[in-house]
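From the methods appendix. Each design record in this collection lists the tokenized structure first, followed by the designed amino acid sequence. Records were kept in a plain field format so they could be parsed without special tools. The example shown here is representative of the layout used throughout.

RECORD:
FOLD TOKENS (259 positions):
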């Protein structure tokens, strides 16, 4: 496959390297600036759109690009790559379609187009890298070789997805109940971490990377740790400032008892 004069294996190498380079850059960038959407929204980032529309547009490459690229891979007819890609697609059907539909009548915040564009470009890079990694560049494996990895990784993936979806649902319920006001969430994993939705999502990609066992998938997991870990820390600081009397100071940001 040729792309813009580049050999596909070169392109895959460059996107994989970029994914890894984005990990320290994200940590450094987010130390100085939160992504200005949701509770961290602030003016000065250009025109905005509604959060559900932003989520739908910026996450969409994870569906259309993945579905377009997957069949071009030399392992695309093998059941294991198909299974791994299906898990990725299931996660993003929720994030791209179901989550914005649930958020539609609830979210009152604004989303800068400039931030949505950055996320859109990241999703193009990541969907390309993950899909080519799974369907083309990963060695073909037999299910007996990967059983332990699939049981462990699959368990983490399912548990993480459950925590992510139920925590997002609880936040949306509170947002609706509070008629657009932010409140301090209580109960369940919220008693241990400020952002269990971020924790759940990160555990999902940990489980998935154990199943994939590829540099591309581990790169995505590490990027998610960097991005959501930093944002969880900013959110904890935001709650402590905004709800000084209500927010339990011992509640961690992202990892129970640790961080
Ligand atoms: N893989 C990645 O790198 C990545 C990056 C970003 C996000 N995500 C995922 O995308 C999802 C959404 O992310 P997000 O950053 O928008 O999450 P978030 O800040 O926790 O917001 C989730 C929803 O809950 C509402 N909400 C948040 N805190 C609330 C509170 N204290 N009281 C009432 N309502 C509250 C928000 O309303 P408003 O919209 O009005 O603020 C929003 O609609 C999460 O599941 C996250 O894991 C993944």
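DESIGN:
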């Amino acid at each position: 496959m040729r792309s813009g004069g580049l050999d596909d294996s070169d392109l895959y190498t460059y996107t994989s390297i970029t994914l890894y380079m984005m990990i320290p850059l994200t940590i450094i960038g987010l130390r100085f600036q939160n992504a200005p959407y949701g509770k961290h929204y602030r003016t000065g980032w250009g025109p905005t759109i509604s959060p559900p529309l932003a989520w739908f547009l910026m996450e969409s490459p994870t569906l259309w690009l993945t579905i377009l690229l997957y069949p071009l891979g030399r392992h695309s007819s093998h059941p294991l790559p198909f299974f791994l890609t299906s898990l990725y697609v299931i996660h993003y059907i929720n994030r791209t379609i179901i989550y914005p539909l649930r958020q539609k009548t609830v979210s009152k915040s604004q989303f800068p187009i400039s931030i949505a564009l950055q996320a859109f470009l990241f999703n193009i890079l990541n969907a390309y890298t993950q899909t080519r990694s799974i369907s083309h560049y990963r060695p073909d494996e037999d299910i007996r070789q990967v059983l332990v990895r699939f049981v462990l990784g699959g368990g983490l993936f399912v548990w993480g997805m459950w925590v992510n979806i139920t925590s997002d649902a609880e936040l949306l319920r509170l947002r609706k109940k509070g008629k657009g006001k932010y409140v301090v969430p209580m109960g369940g994993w919220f008693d241990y971490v400020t952002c269990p939705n971020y924790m759940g999502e990160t555990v999902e990609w940990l489980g998935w990377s154990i199943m994939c066992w590829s540099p591309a998938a581990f790169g995505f997991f590490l990027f998610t740790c960097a991005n959501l870990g930093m944002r969880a820390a900013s959110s904890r600081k935001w709650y402590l400032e905004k709800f000084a009397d209500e927010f339990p100071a011992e509640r961690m940001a992202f990892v129970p008892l640790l961080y």
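APPENDIX NOTE: Strands lie at 2-3, 6-7, 48-49, 111-112.
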